[in-house]
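stage 2 :: seqdesign
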């Protein structure tokens, strides 16, 4: 059975055939590591892989964002487009698009006997903007693995966010706080939704945006926070300031509003936190129903649920075993 080629370590590192490791560090024979995207739970021990001269495989955006986030990457990199394949010994490895943050990829490994192993990485909107592929073995992160982790408004949250930002902009500046990558996705959403107010960005997000623009669509009007130009824009009270969620601030001067982005709310899309401060339930992960649908469409013979990056891993494993009829389900 092909699942004997898969092992998962406590920190979430996924090892395939002792040749390649995904989203963690492990001593594999070919010293190859795949980085599915730049979030910290997927770059675990990345500096160790770099020190040991592992070849890093990822999308163009992911590999070019890593040094901006402080990883000392060297020239031992392989930028792989979605749909392109690379040989690693007797394995064929392909990155498949995932709708999460820019550059995120699912990882599809085809073995010499034709069997297929798929790692989901993080995703949302399966079958819509996250492609569904068949595999014999599926490795999945059940971020929202409990049955009550359901957001009935997921399909309309982007429209809700656009309309809410437009409303707040009519009253003053808007500050949006989210994780790296997520704020880059939100910038694209706001521009596509017709919001042309200038964006003000702190240095890391500014650099990430410039790098992303060199590979894809232009964001348009944005300036570096702390500059004279940014100060003048803030005085105009018509701008969107985007920053990391750990720097969320409330009670801002000049009537500016604060929005914190997070998926950990299931009852309502917008929740008031205080004067001119709100939580908007914008998630980059599929909810429980989306996870279950994804697994059903991949139609694997065996499933590994990665405990290190899951919430309710055992509950999700029980559900797909009982409801989807997948008998070989492992929580590791």
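stage 2 :: out
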């Amino acid at each position: 059975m092909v699942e004997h080629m898969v092992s998962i370590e406590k920190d979430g590192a996924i090892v395939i055939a002792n040749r390649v490791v995904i989203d963690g560090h492990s001593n594999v024979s070919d010293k190859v590591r795949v980085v599915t995207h730049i979030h910290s739970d997927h770059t675990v021990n990345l500096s160790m892989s770099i020190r040991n001269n592992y070849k890093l495989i990822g999308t163009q955006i992911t590999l070019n964002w890593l040094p901006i986030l402080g990883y000392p990457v060297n020239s031992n990199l392989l930028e792989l487009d979605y749909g392109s394949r690379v040989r690693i010994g007797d394995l064929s490895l392909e990155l498949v698009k995932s709708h999460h943050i820019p550059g995120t990829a699912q990882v599809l490994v085809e073995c010499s006997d034709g069997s297929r192993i798929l790692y989901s990485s993080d995703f949302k909107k399966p079958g819509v903007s996250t492609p569904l592929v068949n595999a014999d073995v599926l490795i999945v992160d059940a971020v929202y693995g409990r049955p009550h982790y359901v957001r009935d408004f997921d399909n309309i949250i982007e429209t809700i966010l656009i309309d809410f930002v437009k409303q707040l902009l009519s009253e003053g500046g808007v500050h949006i706080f989210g994780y790296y990558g997520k704020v880059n996705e939100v910038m694209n959403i706001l521009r596509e939704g017709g919001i042309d107010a200038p964006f003000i960005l702190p240095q890391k997000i500014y650099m990430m945006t410039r790098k992303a623009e060199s590979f894809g669509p232009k964001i348009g009007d944005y300036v570096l926070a702390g500059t004279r130009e940014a100060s003048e824009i803030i005085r105009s009270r018509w701008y969107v300031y985007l920053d990391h969620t750990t720097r969320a601030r409330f009670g801002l001067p000049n009537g500016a509003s604060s929005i914190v982005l997070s998926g950990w709310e299931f009852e309502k899309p917008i929740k008031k936190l205080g004067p001119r401060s709100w939580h908007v339930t914008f998630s980059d992960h599929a909810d429980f129903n989306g996870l279950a649908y994804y697994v059903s469409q991949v139609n694997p013979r065996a499933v590994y649920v990665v405990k290190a990056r899951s919430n309710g891993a055992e509950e999700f494993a029980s559900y797909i075993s009982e409801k989807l009829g997948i008998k070989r389900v492992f929580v590791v």
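stage 3 :: structure notes
- DSSP finds eight helices and 20 strands in the chain.
- The CA atoms of residues 175 and 243 lie 8 Å apart.
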